[in-house]
């Protein structure tokens, strides 16, 4: 649920990074946190287990500056990927303005990707939201791994991207693809706010 | 289950002119037990009286007078008396015609049994 | 400390609550974690973090309640050594908001509860009906978005 304040000309949007366990959602936020200048970001909050797996969520508020006269802020969240945190994922997804689905490109993770993608749609439905109405982009992470271990973006598109939303190859650990993914979801979310509809 | 303060409160409410008596947590302002006549909002009264008692106690300490023993508030349409022991405050709200001397004596006796 | 609001109707009820309950921090937010008004924080990003965590606590407690007793736990109170936290729902026309209050020695849970009830009433009266997302941006936003993203990441 984006918040638009006409009096103070501020926009705040919630973007959720969704995907299976260990696909790189938190890594995306860490990279963004590392790149964004100090005056444009808040503290990165990680509610994690002792083994650094996301327990509840990671949270990073960033200030995107002024767009069309509105001071624009994004709140980036990740969900815990592990199957048994289903309830938590649903809670964090509440009120999301846009979703980045982070898929693990490793061939052996295909089943987990598909299940998580279905889980995303089921959770949106539980919130009474039609999945097609929510801005969504897909990121195929870990494309830096050896070719024989991973599926190509085209192959992954075949398996996951039946909605034909924008998709991006990424190596979230080192940065490639992180920025372009954030840019794409930002565009979609703000396009939707501008009344142009987006996807 | 009967509250351990029921007997104390029943004794105080019997005084002519007493509209309500309460046992209140001093630090949290929450109502522990009460006997109230219709029209007295126990929760609000408890919170505000506990706050008043805390402030009176602090003021007394700041002035070097030691702990506040008995706080009495006279208003246009009634009286409020409070006495504390440990974490608890015993509060009585009464009409102007109440025999304050008698109520005070009974409150000081009753408060001994509070903690 | 200044009161900051994202919606005009929030100002009066929130100010009254802060004054009456002697709260050190008070934040009114949407359950998704979006702030509507706040008192006590200096930086907006810190408010956002508080809101995200509060929304998470509230959502977790609600879900825990549903699992344990079939209906959500709603009001939460945590007493720390020096400060206490109170988190509770504020029903308004068309939805529910959350109020987070942090208070210290100057107040008590009883006072906060009493003035929270006043706040609930005032907010319910003052809040407009929730209308959902509204159109906001001009058509040139794409250029500015790209410029700002590039500035943020130091490259295009």
Largest interface: A-C, 57 and 43 residues
State the helix count of chain B.
3
Q: How big is the Rg of chain A?
A: 16 Å
Spatial separation of the terminal alpha carbons of chain A: 17 Å
Report on this structure.
The complex is a heterotrimer of chains A (199), B (115) and C (156). Chain A has 199 residues and is of the alpha/beta class. Chain A has helices at residues 25-35, 86-93, 110-126, 153-160, 178-193; strands at 3-5, 10-18, 45-48, 54-67, 70-78, 98-104, 136-141, 167-169. Chain A has one domain (3-193): Rossmann fold (3-Layer(aba) Sandwich), CATH 3.40.50. Chain A is 30% helix and 28% strand. In chain A, β3 and β4 form a beta hairpin. The mean pLDDT of chain A is 88. With 115 residues, chain B is α+β, with helices and mostly antiparallel strands. Chain B has a single domain (6-111), classed as Dynein light chain 2a, cytoplasmic (Beta-Lactamase), CATH 3.30.450.30. Chain B has helices spanning 6-13, 42-62, 100-111, and strands at residues 18-25, 31-36, 71-75, 78-85, 88-94. Chain B has a 5-stranded antiparallel beta sheet with strand order 2-1-5-4-3, sandwiched between helices. The relative contact order of chain B is 0.21. Chain C has 156 residues and is an alpha+beta fold. Chain C has one domain (3-153): 2-Layer Sandwich (Beta-Lactamase), CATH 3.30.450. The longest helix of chain C has 26 residues, at 44-69. Chain C is globular. Chains in contact: A-C, B-C. At the A-C interface, β1, β2, β4, β5 and α2 of A face α2 and α4 of C.
List keywords for this structure.
heterotrimer; A: 199 residues; alpha/beta; Rossmann fold; eight-stranded mixed beta sheet; C: alpha+beta; Beta-Lactamase; six-stranded antiparallel beta sheet; 4 helices; globular
Task: Please outline the helices and strands.
The complex is a heterotrimer of chains A (about 200), B (about 120) and C (about 160).
Chain A: E1 3-5, E2 10-18, H1 25-35, E3 45-48, E4 54-67, E5 70-78, H2 86-93, E6 98-104, H3 110-126, E7 136-141, H4 153-160, E8 167-169, H5 178-193
Parallel strand pairs in A: 2-5, 2-6, 6-7, 7-8
Antiparallel strand pairs in A: 1-2, 3-4, 4-5
Helix pairs in contact in A: 2-3
Chain B: H1 6-13, E1 18-25, E2 31-36, H2 42-62, E3 71-75, E4 78-85, E5 88-94, H3 100-111
Antiparallel strand pairs in B: 1-2, 1-5, 3-4, 4-5
Chain C: E1 3-5, H1 8-21, E2 25-29, E3 35-39, H2 44-69, E4 76-79, E5 84-92, E6 95-103, H3 109-126, H4 141-153
Antiparallel strand pairs in C: 1-3, 2-3, 2-6, 4-5, 5-6
């Amino acid at each position: 649920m984006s918040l638009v304040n006409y009096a103070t000309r501020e926009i705040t949007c919630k973007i959720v990074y969704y995907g299976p366990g260990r696909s790189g959602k938190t890594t995306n936020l860490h990279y963004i946190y590392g790149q964004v200048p100090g005056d444009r970001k808040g503290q990165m909050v990680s509610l994690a287990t002792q083994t650094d797996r996301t327990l509840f969520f990671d949270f990073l508020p960033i200030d995107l500056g002024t767009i069309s006269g509105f001071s624009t802020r994004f709140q980036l969240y990740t969900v815990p990927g592990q199957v048994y945190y289903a309830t938590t994922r649903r809670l964090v997804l509440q009120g999301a303005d846009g979703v980045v689905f982070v898929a693990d490109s490793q061939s052996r993770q295909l089943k987990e990707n598909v299940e998580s993608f279905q889980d995303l749609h089921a959770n949106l439905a539980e919130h009474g939201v039609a999945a097609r109405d929510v801005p969504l982009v897909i990121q195929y992470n870990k494309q830096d791994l050896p070719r024989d271990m991973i599926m190509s973006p085209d192959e992954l598109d075949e398996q996951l991207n039946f909605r034909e939303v924008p998709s991006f190859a990424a190596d979230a650990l080192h940065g490639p693809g992180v920025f372009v993914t954030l840019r794409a979801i930002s565009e979609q979310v703000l396009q939707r706010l501008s009344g142009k509809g987006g996807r | 289950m009967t509250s351990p303060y029921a007997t104390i409160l029943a004794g105080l409410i019997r005084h002519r002119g007493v509209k309500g008596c309460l046992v209140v947590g001093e630090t949290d302002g929450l109502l522990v037990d009460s006997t109230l006549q219709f029209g007295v909002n126990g929760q609000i009264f408890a919170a505000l009286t506990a706050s008043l008692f805390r402030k009176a106690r602090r003021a007394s300490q700041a002035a070097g007078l030691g702990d506040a023993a008995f706080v009495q508030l006279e208003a246009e349409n009634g009286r409020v008396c409070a006495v504390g022991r440990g974490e608890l405050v015993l509060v009585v709200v009464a009409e102007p015609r109440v025999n304050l001397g008698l109520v005070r004596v009974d409150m000081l006796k009753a408060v001994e049994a509070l903690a | 400390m200044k009161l900051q609001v994202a919606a005009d109707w929030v100002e009066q009820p929130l100010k009254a609550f802060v004054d009456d309950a002697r709260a050190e921090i008070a934040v009114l937010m949407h359950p998704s974690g979006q702030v509507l008004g706040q008192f006590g924080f200096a930086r907006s990003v810190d408010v956002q973090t508080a809101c995200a965590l509060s929304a998470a606590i509230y959502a977790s407690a609600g879900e825990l309640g549903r699992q344990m007793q079939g209906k959500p736990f709603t009001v939460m109170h945590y007493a720390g050594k020096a400060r206490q936290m109170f988190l509770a729902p504020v029903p308004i026309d068309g939805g529910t908001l959350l109020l987070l209050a942090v208070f210290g020695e100057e107040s008590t849970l009883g006072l906060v509860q009493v003035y929270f009830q006043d706040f609930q009433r005032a907010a319910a009266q003052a809040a407009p009906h929730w209308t959902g997302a509204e159109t906001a941006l001009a058509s040139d936003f794409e250029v500015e978005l790209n410029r700002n993203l590039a500035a943020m990441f130091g490259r295009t």
